[in-house]
Amino acid sequence: MSVTVRVPAKVNVQLAVGAARPDGFHPLANVFLAVGLYDEVTVTPADELRVTCEGPDADQVPLDRTNLAARAAIALAERYGRSPDVHLHIAKDIPVAGGMAGGSADGAAALVACDTLWQTGASREELLDICAELGSDVPFSLVGGAALGIGRGEQLTPLEVGGAFHWVFAMADRGLSTPAVFRAFDRLGEGVDMPTPVASQELLDALAKGDPDALAVTVSNDLQPAALSLFPELADTLAAGRAAGALAALVSGSGPTTAFLVRGPESAATVAQALLASGTCRTVRTASGPAPGATIAGR
After folding, report:
1. CA torsion sign, 261 to 266 to 272 to 278?
2. What is the pLDDT of residues 227-239, one digit of tens each?
3. CB 4 within 8 A of CB 118
4. d(CA 31, CA 286)
């Protein structure tokens, strides 16, 4: 028997970041929107824990126990007193190291798949608790839709979304390390009094109305200046998308993927074509959100 779980990418429509806490983490007000780019994780009983991966940039995905899918299987097995003897196969379609929570998505998918395969009967709260232990973005990958994440981003409140929002994503020709981006954020913010991060009410209202024009003027990412300081060429990608008619352009999470909000599928195709022609990115993808969280796709 095997279980396959499909899980979406995310875009941060708002990422407000506060000063580093004593434990090194930064308080966040993180408005997540799940979008329709998916990884699939298939879990099959095996003699020992094993990870394989296929898809774009699969060679960049770690196949040892540092992989979040492997860590999820281990965490659930430990909680229920069993061995994590499974083969985890990841079919990647979410960009790797792109600020779209692909690794976190795989962790959430593996957790749901192993829970189903082993019939552990874990509650939703238990699964979310394990997700939070694995990483700040993992709980949202489990729930999908749209949500406000506070704390490290793991304390989630579901958000109402009044319609579909259409996006174009431009993939850069190299990666960016999330810890390096946060270090740059700290460096740029040295000596600056940072307010406690809060979600923009105007942005939440725009999501609830399903209004892309209203959302466009409220999207923000406090990590963007830090990402641009480490990867200045991303500014050219952002400019190319805006020039092509995107309603808004921002770095997705810690980058280096850039995200462009557009009015619909037709404008998405126009912006995607212009971005490719600009030579400022490696590839482009289009997707809409919200999308459902980790979902069993087959067994």
Report:
1. negative
2. 999 999 999 999 9
3. no
4. 20
From CA 161, how far away is CA 290, in angstroms rounded?
Answer: 8
Classified as helix, coil or strand, 71 is helix
Token digits of residue 229:
């300081």
- Residue 209 is a catalytic residue: no
Residue located via tokens 């799940």: 34
Among residues 10, 92, 115, 222, the one annotated as catalytic is 10
- Containing H/E element for 115? helix 102-118
CA torsion, ordered 220, 234, 292, 87, to nearest 10 deg: -140
Is the backbone peptide bond immediately before 290 cis, with ω within 30 degrees of 0? yes
Let me know: does 208 contact 215? Beta carbons within 8 Å: no
Q: Is 106 a catalytic residue?
A: no
CA dihedral 246, 223, 38, 65 (to 10 degrees): 160
Q: Which two tokens stand for residue 248?
A: 């808004």
| Residues 240-289: tens digit of each pLDDT | 999 999 999 999 988 899 999 999 999 999 999 999 999 999 999 999 99
Query: For 54-112, what is each residue's pLDDT tens digit?
Result: 998 899 899 999 999 999 999 999 999 999 999 999 999 998 877 888 999 999 999 99
* The one catalytic residue among 129, 137, 186, 236: 137
What is the amino acid identity at position 1?
Answer: M
pLDDT number for residue 81: 95
Distances (CA, A) of 222 to 73, 252, 277, 287: 33, 11, 29, 23
Angle at 100 between CA 167 and CA 207, to 5 degrees: 45
Largest CA distance in the chain: 57
